[in-house]
Design brief:
By secondary structure, this protein is mainly alpha-helical. The chain has a domain of about 240 residues. About 65% of the residues lie in helices and about 5% in strands. The chain is built from 17 helices and five strands. It has a three-stranded mixed β-sheet. It has a two-stranded parallel ribbon with strand order 2-3.
Length: about 350
Amino acid sequence: MEHLDKLNAPSPPTKEWKAIIKEYAQPRPGMASWQLVNTVGAYILLWVAMYFMLNFIPKPWNWVTLAPVAILAGALLVRVFIIFHDCGHGSFFKSKRMNKIWGHVCGTLAFTPFSHWSWEHSVHHAHNGHLDRRGVGDIWTMTVDEYLSASAKRRFLYRLGRNPIVLFVIGPMWTFMIGHRFPLPQAKPKEKLSVLWSNLAILAMVLILGYAFGWLAYLYITLTVMTVASTLGVWLFYVQHQFEDTYWESAENWDYFKAAVHGSSFYKLPKVLQWFSGNIGFHHIHHLSSKIPNYNLERCHKSHRMFNEVKPLTFWKSFKCINFRLWDQENMKLITFRQLKNKLKGNGGLTA
């Protein structure tokens, strides 16, 4: 009931909340530079460390000790991706040129084309929580009515896509290693060309590192790093929008402020996980203004009562989100397949 009351309450005037967040939408060169050192620099150092471990630690212990370092590198790559993400929004540096340069560098490290992904992600921001404009830059989400009226094949594909193994392991690896190598059909020529240049840069990186490490070692390290990074990254994106009391509305009722503050979670993580995830848990603030760099998100969240009143999604409670599958327009919340089945039993025994 409290959730529905908040959704039905009027949003604050745009001028009011824009005035509050204005000072936080200013890049700070010192903070940005330090993040490049402690994130991109640290990531590169881990690769250097793995090179020396392979060459100077006796076999087979070098392979044993390599695994935890590769896992740590995967976690750190998530933070590299957040810098890439901020550069795509033009928020990390004041300079457009610097954002573009470091966006391409971090994108190459993360196997992601900078311009194409930035365009796709901007669509997600513009249409977050908009039922009539789903399909680009978001996780496939069906409403209850859409699911019930879908063909058996489409239901099967939806269930398969929502399976945790597919959603958080197979899907992420496919997306980053294969999917990002091809542009979307609706992308403009500029974005399509960026995929080509990105692929060439990634190929050069792979050839250099493969030659330096040896192909078997490089494949082992890369698959470990990318599995960890892609799984964690997709998990973060998932819980940022796929929680029970999220926000979805049709065109006539869609509201930007509500989509940002109520349709994006405040994912309250332990400090160490908050650091590795680049503060992206303050996602309600990020969607309110994508021009706020990650290093200003927490300060903005703490700056005003309206943000502090947002109910946090804690680390342990976030695992309940794995079971949510469908948007129930009648009750304005995400539900599980089991909840749908129980709901249908009470409505005449229709089958899910």
